[in-house]
Design brief:
alpha/beta, Spore Coat Polysaccharide Biosynthesis Protein SpsA, Chain A, nine-stranded mixed β-sheet, two-stranded antiparallel ribbon, globular, binds 1-O-phosphono-alpha-D-glucopyranose, UTP--glucose-1-phosphate uridylyltransferase, GalU_uridylyltTrfase_bac/arc, transferase
Amino acid sequence: MTGAATTQTFRTAIVPAAGLGTRFLPATKAVPKELLPVVDTPGIELVAAEAAAAGAERLVIVTSPGKDAVVRYFEEQPELEQNLEAKGKTDLLEKVRRGSGLLAVETAIQEQALGLGHAVAQAEPNLRPDDEAVAVLLPDDLVLPTGVLERMSAVRAQYGGSVLCAFDIPKAEISPYGVFDVTGTDDEDVKRVHGMVEKPKPEDAPSTYAAAGRYLLDRAIFDALKRITPGSGGELQLTDAVALLISEGHPVHVVVHRGGRHDLGNPGGFLRAAVDFALETPEYGPSLRAWLTERIGTERP
Ligand code: G1P
């Protein structure tokens, strides 16, 4: 039996995907950044697959008006499938069906860009009565190898409350993140959280443990989200709702993920992810590696 089967603590995953994708303009004039392909697969399918593998049955995608292509991506395409089937293109057929077969996808709409906390709050009407906790996955963050949500589920089963994923990163690079004030537990990779602050200056950061885009949140977060006021950047921050719960005695822990990570939120990070994934494929890996090696040693005339 897998860890997910024994300590499953959520069935619904929320993916906030309402951003304008300004760092990817001009492409995002027409294509939502969540649909840009990492090799051939949109980033949002990678995140949906991670949620499904961790036991999620439903995915609530929070989009903004005009970004419905993100949700349409998960719909079946019968004509295309019949066409591929008739031509015996079974590999492509499997790829086309993969996204729509992962889990049930629903939409919530964020009308105004008021922050990550506000985006997550829009998914509350989609919850079922038995959703005692929800997973939140930020599609800009690829956390590798996958599996951290299963560990987070096990930690919620042990301690209750909410569990977040943290990366230990150099203090000088901490400012773009939500940062945890922590003390240790018996497990080196699990810390108790006593406070959380969004985007601190390095000298104000309470630790080097930064929030890394994976959250397992008790349903109480939705009540906390109604009680926060605009914080960092004038936005309603998920970090501030977590901090509010902590101040009220709600148990919060982090699982420190020691693996890798890609930031799909900007072209530089996206390219690294694409190259990293492509190098692992038998189809493109060997020739890409050879070309990169040659290209890196060559000055353009
Ligand atoms: C968001 C969160 C931040 C978290 C980060 C992870 O920030 O607000 O706490 O550390 O994602 O990528 P954003 O990247 O949206 O500014």
